[in-house]
Specification:
This protein is 58% helix and 7% strand. The protein has 349 residues and is mostly helical. Strands 1-5-4 form a three-stranded antiparallel sheet, covered by helices on one side.
Length: 349
């Protein structure tokens, strides 16, 4: 009976086409709530052909939702509608994270996609109050997701390894900051939110840097490097404009400071660098090393850990130890790494 109803809908839709003719993305049906849907929803038949299930602007009824649940179907959207779906998911991010019908891995992918879109919007309009509000809610939901299941943290971590650098860097650093914070501060949700926001916003000042410098495929010359370094001051100014907690602003300004005073923009040493900035710094370095850039190939996680360990006088050891625990996820491996890092002889089992 359910299948007959679905077939009737398909016949009424007047759109059946091979999936290969358009680029489709699968989305979990449980992320769509009853109500008006602002994008086309497709299903896929056994023959691999796409069927328009619900045209955008129409109502997704509880009855339709029940049919899809019974058939265990997923929805598909076209690439043209991907941004509309992410906006839709962003408006419902708390519901998605708390929905027991959605798999943890799917929640992680949705949060990650919403995060990249949020960073893109921040870079386009860093003074927007609505975008900053979306950022607050995103980080709150990400903290809740990571605490909901060990699988969620692993999923978010793995997603960070398979994405382009442009808009993924800030959401990756946000994720890593929350993970490091959980190791350092336990379940202090406010502290983890501050760390997540610090990671998400640490590079927002790059929105004021010339795009030609940001996208240059070779190393920057001395003049360009001086311009690039100003992004920390711009991040500080933008974050202050939104009246966010001081540790978040400090992280925007000081995430390139180093404990020995060799960093920028203020040449701070040791305890004068806020702990939040020191955590963001370690997360920032790790993601930069493990991401493909125009002028260098990415390192493996283990290679990156060794590279960071070699800069021991410059970084916060508590934050680095938390990174070790997050990356290796096994205390025996952490102990082996710490025992052998100077000899360079560590090999994971």
């Amino acid at each position: 009976m359910f299948r007959r109803k679905l077939l009737l809908v398909a016949q009424q839709s007047a759109l059946v086409e091979p999936m290969a003719k358009q680029r489709f993305t699968a989305i979990t049906a449980a992320s769509i709530e009853p109500g008006l849907v602002p994008f086309n929803l497709y299903t896929k038949g056994d023959d691999g052909r796409a069927t328009l299930y619900l045209r955008k602007g129409l109502i997704y009824t509880p009855k339709r939702k029940g049919i899809l649940k019974e058939l265990e179907r997923v929805f598909y959207i076209t690439s043209d509608d991907k941004d509309r779906y992410l906006e839709y998911a962003s408006d419902r991010i708390e519901n998605i994270v708390n929905n027991p019908e959605i798999r943890v891995s799917d929640k992680a992918m949705i949060v990650y996609g919403v995060g990249k879109r949020t960073v893109k919007r921040l870079m386009e309009d860093p003074r927007s109050g609505s975008v900053m509000n979306s950022s607050r809610r995103l980080v709150e939901s990400q903290v809740a997701l990571i605490f909901s299941s060990p699988e969620a943290a692993a999923n978010m971590f793995e997603l960070s390894a398979f994405d382009s650098y442009t808009f993924s860097h800030s959401i990756n650093v946000c994720t890593f900051c929350i993970m490091l914070g959980e190791k350092l501060f336990g379940d202090d949700k406010q502290k983890l939110w501050e760390l997540g926001m610090s990671g998400l916003l640490h590079d927002v000042g790059k929105s004021r840097i010339d795009q030609n410098i940001l996208e240059k495929e070779t190393c920057l010359d001395a003049e360009e490097w001086e311009v690039m370094k100003r992004h920390t001051l711009f991040s500080y100014e933008i974050i202050r404009e939104h009246s966010l907690p001081k540790p978040i602003a400090d992280a925007g300004r000081h995430h390139h400071e180093r404990l020995d005073g060799s960093g920028y923009p203020d040449g701070l040493k040791g305890w004068r660098i806020h702990p939040t900035a020191r955590i963001v710094s370690v997360a920032d370095i790790y993601d930069a090393l493990t991401s493909d850039r125009p002028y260098k190939s990415k390192m493996t996680p283990l290679e990156a850990l060794h590279e960071i360990a070699a800069t021991e006088p410059h970084i916060d050891q508590g934050a680095f130890n938390a990174l070790l625990q997050s990356v290796l996820r096994n205390m025996d491996l952490v102990h082996d790494f710490q025992a052998n890092k100077l000899a360079g002889s560590f090999h994971p089992a």
